[in-house]
Amino acid sequence: MEILSATFVKSSANLAQCPEADVPEYAFIGRSNVGKSSLINMLTGRLSLAKISQTPGKTQLINHFMINEGKTPWLLADLPGYGYAKVSKKNREVFSLMIRTYLKNRENLMCAFVLLDSRLPAQKIDLEFMEWMGENGIPFVMVFTKVDKLNKTETAENFAAFEAEMLKTWEFLPQQFRTSSTKGEGKDELINFISETNAQW
Ligand code: GTP
Ligand code: MG
């Protein structure tokens, strides 16, 4: 599949405001600053489709983008980052509830991409979030970001440690992708995955 077009649809503050659920949808989620917007721009080949923030926690709405409209259309949803410390506890709870309601009830959601910073050891908040996804039967894959910031040894060590941590609670690990938005790494793999998943719509 080629990305022929990518256009911003709308920003939604909750599930009810989201665009019509009549084409397959993929959600991008992860901690603030993990690189969601950068990855969306890299995948779509549009340098400033999703706004890249210097200030983490900036995206506080669900932003929908329509890809390949009129051909093989699908929706991409950029979700607010979770767990950003500088956002008030009250606000964090509102976002968390909003995101979880969306994930559990969005009818056309084919798969969520849970973004994880490949430089960091497994974070409690990410592990808990993935566990919640598993418990609720929401399909997701793991997408490691910013692999360009690590050398080969660090990459191998970090992935081995992450896997070991996951295997404490997971019998089988979800599918994994390694990406760099600056280098374009992982783009073909993710686009192919979306293309194959679209075929199940
Ligand atoms: P919020 O919307 O605030 O939750 O952040 P986000 O997850 O959308 O992250 P964003 O794409 O805005 O990226 C955060 C920072 O990381 C920016 O300074 C990006 O330039 C940088 N960044 C993102 N992806 C990569 C990557 O693959 N490699 C490198 N080197 N930097 C990256
Ligand atoms: Mg963002």
Describe this structure in words.
The protein is built from five helices and seven strands, in the order ββαββαβαβαβα. By secondary structure, the chain is an alpha/beta fold. It has one domain: P-loop containing nucleotide triphosphate hydrolases (Rossmann fold, 3-Layer(aba) Sandwich), CATH 3.40.50.300. It has a seven-stranded mixed β-sheet, with helices on both faces. Strand 3 and strand 4 form a beta hairpin. It starts with 5 loop residues before the first strand and ends with a helix. The site of guanosine-5'-triphosphate has 21 residues, from helix 1.
The radius of gyration computed from the alpha-carbon positions, rounded to a whole number of angstroms, is 16 Å
Number of helices: 5
Question: What is the correct CATH architecture?
Answer: 3-Layer(aba) Sandwich
- Per the CATH scheme, the topology name is Rossmann fold
